[in-house]
UniProtKB/TrEMBL annotation:
Ranges for domain Cytochrome c: 22-100
Gene3D superfamilies referenced in this protein's UniProt entry, alphabetically: Cytochrome c-like domain
Lineage: Bacteria, Pseudomonadati, Pseudomonadota, Gammaproteobacteria, Moraxellales
Pfam family, one: Cytochrome_CBB3
InterPro entries in UniProt: Cyt_c-like_dom, Cyt_c-like_dom_sf, Cyt_C_IC, Cytochrome_c-type_DH
Record PANTHER family: ALCOHOL DEHYDROGENASE CYTOCHROME C SUBUNIT (PTHR35008:SF8), BLL4482 PROTEIN-RELATED (PTHR35008)
Identification of the protein by name: Cytochrome c
Record keywords, A-Z: Electron transport, Heme, Iron, Metal-binding, Signal, Transport
Origin species: Aquirhabdus parva
Molecular function terms, GO-annotated: electron transfer activity; heme binding; iron ion binding
Signal peptide range in chain numbering: 1-22
Superkingdom in the source lineage: Bacteria
Annotated PROSITE patterns: CYTC
Length: 134
């Protein structure tokens, strides 16, 4: 009886772990699903249409600017604020900053939380500003 309970617990633990793992996506997975169609799986982009991320001074520069761009979009790039949670956003930005020969620091979930909060605060400030300033 005791060994049957132990086996049941192990099976439950393994099933739970597999489910939790399935919900989390690696930065590469997030990139493949959301970014690769434009920026290409190799990070080379399409000249004149979608910028390369491989070797990009922008990508290798200020991580806050990269996170903000993914949150808010830029030019023809859509916003991902609603579709990527903080974990996925930190994973994908870290992946981009550390792939294809790029060697920049990773972005933490806390970094993303802070930038997202600041971005949301800026939206509130813009909405509250009067439109008729004399």
């Amino acid at each position: 009886m005791k060994s049957m309970v132990s086996k049941s617990l192990w099976v439950a633990l393994i099933a739970f772990s597999a489910g939790a793992h399935a919900e989390s996506m690696s930065g590469k997975d997030v990139f493949s699903k959301n970014c690769a169609a434009c920026h290409m799986a190799t990070g080379t982009g399409i000249p004149g249409a979608f910028p390369a991320l491989k070797g990009s001074k922008f990508v290798l520069g200020d991580a806050n600017a990269v996170v903000s761009t993914v949150l808010k979009g830029r030019g023809g790039m859509p916003t991902f604020a609603a579709s990527l949670d903080d974990d996925k956003l930190s994973a994908v930005v870290s992946y981009v900053r550390q792939s294809w020969g790029n060697q920049a620091s990773a972005v933490t979930v806390q970094d993303v939380k802070t930038i997202r909060a600041n971005t949301n605060a800026m939206k509130v400030v813009k909405k509250e500003q009067p439109t008729n300033i004399h």
